[in-house]
Inverse folding.
């Protein structure tokens, strides 16, 4: 092993001298790999929590500070400098639940297994089908007839992993019978929210954040406040079936649409279904590479 390491060091040293590169040892290469792994893990953590949304807000503030520095806006620069220490402390407080969960997950991981099993598929979940829309609408209005309370969160682009973990894993194909059975009174899974991802119910009995909005009517209960709360921190659509009067409401973008009919609900679900996902250049490159591979397979056949 020592001879192999020495040979690699000699080869790299000669190559560096020939190409006029800075001297890089094997230790430097290992260090780069470790930093790359940690950076990748941090990006995955940001993707699966609300951290990305909060981070974008922070980037907007930093851009304003950068503009102030370019144009010598001394008052703004002075405020930024004097609030830097407070801002760092505030970030720790804001990200405390996510940071704790990330460290717990890191402690449970098999380091070598996670190191060599990067997922380059992009984790695409896909939009739900028309059948899923019909099943959800059917379940909601059947539950409304018998005044069975329900809270259904339909995930869109922002992944709701942190709320999914608060519930019980279901991972079943969404049908109207499954939803009705979940929310049936006096059953183990009826209390809390259901999270729908694609065509599957991924989790039940999930806890959602309650809204602090003062515009919400006082006669609305916890289900409606939770529906508005999750819509304020994500791009999801949440369906609420009232246990008191059986009426169906929708929360979306921090707004609550009360007492909607089946056609209105179908249209909103169809809007989420057809809304295009923001595609990055890396994802476009992966798709093109996949298309090229499929074309080559067809030619070979």
């Amino acid at each position: 092993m020592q001879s192999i390491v020495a040979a690699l060091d000699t080869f790299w040293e000669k190559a560096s001298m020939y190409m006029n590169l800075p001297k890089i040892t094997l230790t430097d290469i290992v260090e780069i790999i470790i930093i790359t792994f940690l950076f990748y893990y941090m990006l995955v953590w940001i993707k699966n929590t609300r951290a990305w949304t909060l981070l974008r807000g922070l980037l907007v503030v930093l851009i304003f500070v950068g503009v102030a520095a370019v144009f010598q806006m001394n008052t703004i620069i002075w405020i930024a400098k004097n609030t830097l220490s407070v801002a760092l402390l505030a970030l720790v407080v804001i990200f405390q639940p996510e940071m704790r969960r990330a460290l717990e997950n890191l402690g449970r991981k098999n380091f070598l297994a996670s190191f060599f099993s990067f997922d380059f598929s992009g984790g695409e979940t896909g939009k739900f089908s028309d059948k899923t829309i019909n099943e959800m609408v059917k379940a909601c209005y059947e539950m409304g007839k018998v005044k069975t309370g329900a809270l259904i969160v339909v995930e869109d682009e922002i992944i709701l992993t942190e709320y999914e973990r608060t519930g019980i894993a279901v991972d079943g194909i969404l049908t109207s019978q499954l939803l009705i059975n979940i929310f049936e009174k006096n059953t183990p899974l009826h209390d809390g929210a259901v999270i729908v991802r694609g065509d599957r119910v991924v989790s039940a009995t999930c806890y959602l954040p309650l809204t602090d909005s003062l515009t919400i009517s006082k006669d609305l209960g916890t289900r409606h406040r939770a529906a508005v709360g999750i819509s304020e921190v994500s791009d999801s659509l949440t369906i609420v079936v009232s246990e008191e009067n059986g009426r169906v409401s929708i929360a979306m973008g921090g707004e609550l649409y009360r007492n909607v009919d089946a056609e209105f609900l179908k249209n909103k679900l169809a809007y989420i279904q057809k809304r295009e996902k923001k595609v990055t250049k890396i994802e476009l490159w992966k798709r093109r590479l996949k298309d090229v591979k499929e074309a080559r397979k067809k030619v070979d056949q």
